[in-house]
Write a structure and sequence with these properties.
Layout (H helix, E strand, L loop, with lengths): L5 E18 L5 E20 L4 E4 L11 H13 L5 E6 L10 H16 L6 H11 L3 H6 L2 E5 L4 E6 L5 E6 L6 H9 L10 H9 L2 H7 L1 E2 L2 H7 L2 H11 L3 E6 L6 E5 L2 H13 L3 E6 L6 E3 L6
Parallel strand pairs: 1-8, 3-4
Antiparallel strand pairs: 1-2, 1-12, 2-4, 2-5, 5-6, 7-10, 7-11, 9-10
């Protein structure tokens, strides 16, 4: 085992395109989505230990053994027939119940961190298998950038070009359970989704204006049933100067605005914070979760 400690950045994500379809025989939904990583995210520090532990800088409101990062460490160790002898310290920045993928990214960060601490080579297939079992978004964070997925949102179709655009994230003070959002979705009639081609073309052309016009998320109406304030967040973004387009993050409750400049993104988050909402200025990025060496960790 490597000596450690190591620090891992765990980026959040946005859905540039999200089309949820019918329920499958396995009780999951058909999902077509284009995910894109952000600069903003959580931070994890890992080090060798006698036994598995997880500490967070905030109360996550769930038992430790239910945390996705903890479960990732357990599952990877079991898959490799090893003891989960690591201590995990989580600095949580991505809000819970926001649709930004914070828990999934934390899980991917732990998997990569364990692979680094254990000096693993040739176990990539096992890591990806464990990631897929933990959640549909977890494998994406092992690769980062931008990617099109289908199946139940877990089958990689292709990578797509990653752009570096300013993004404003805002979240009203309400969390949305993914399970509740899907139940609400099942009670609504859905129009035919436009398909992801327009988003992919915008990314390939590097056009923020085209991308803003092509954003799509058919979970939005379901989220509004659970948290009507999400409509106010979207309206705030769409009315702000310098915003190319706005959409909800995953199944909510956060929304994002693609902006023509960092200044425009700051204006959006300032307006949100004046309402008592959470806001963050960030950028789209091509990186995945990233491991830093012990020399870079205090």
């Amino acid at each position: 085992m490597a000596l450690g400690p190591i620090r891992i950045t765990a980026p959040a994500k946005i859905n540039l395109y999200l089309a949820v379809g019918a329920t499958r025989p396995d009780r999951y939904h058909d999902v077509t989505t284009i995910l894109h990583a952000l600069e903003f995210g959580d931070e994890i520090v890992m080090r060798p230990a006698d036994s598995l532990s997880l500490a967070s800088d905030i109360d996550l409101g769930i038992p430790t053994h239910e945390n996705l990062a903890y479960r990732a460490a357990q599952a990877f160790a079991v898959a490799l027939g090893r003891k989960a002898d690591v201590a995990i310290r989580l600095t949580k920045r991505v809000p819970h119940g926001a649709g930004l993928g914070g828990g999934s990214s934390d899980a991917a960060a732990v998997l990569l961190g364990m692979a680094h601490l254990w000096d693993l080579e040739g176990h990539e297939a096992t890591m990806y298998s464990v990631a897929a079992a933990l959640g549909a978004d977890v494998p994406f964070f092992l690769d980062g950038g931008g990617a099109l997925y289908d199946g139940r949102g877990d089958r990689l179709v292709r990578s797509v070009p990653a752009l570096a655009l300013p993004v404003a994230l805002i979240r009203p003070p309400v969390a949305i359970s993914t399970a509740e959002a899907y139940r609400a979705f099942d009670g609504l009639a859905q129009p035919t989704a436009p398909g992801p081609a327009a988003v992919i073309e915008a990314l390939e052309r590097g056009s923020a204006e085209m991308l803003g016009a092509a954003l799509y998320n058919n979970m939005t109406d379901a989220a509004l049933r659970l948290a009507p304030v999400v409509a106010d967040a979207l309206a705030l973004c769409q009315a702000a100067p310098g915003v190319q387009g706005a959409a909800m993050c995953g199944s909510g409750s956060a929304v994002f605005a693609l902006c023509e400049s960092d200044a425009a993104a700051r204006e959006v988050t300032t307006s949100a914070r004046e309402r008592g909402w959470w806001g963050m200025v960030t950028r789209m990025q091509s990186a995945r979760v990233e491991v830093q060496t012990a020399r870079e960790v205090s």
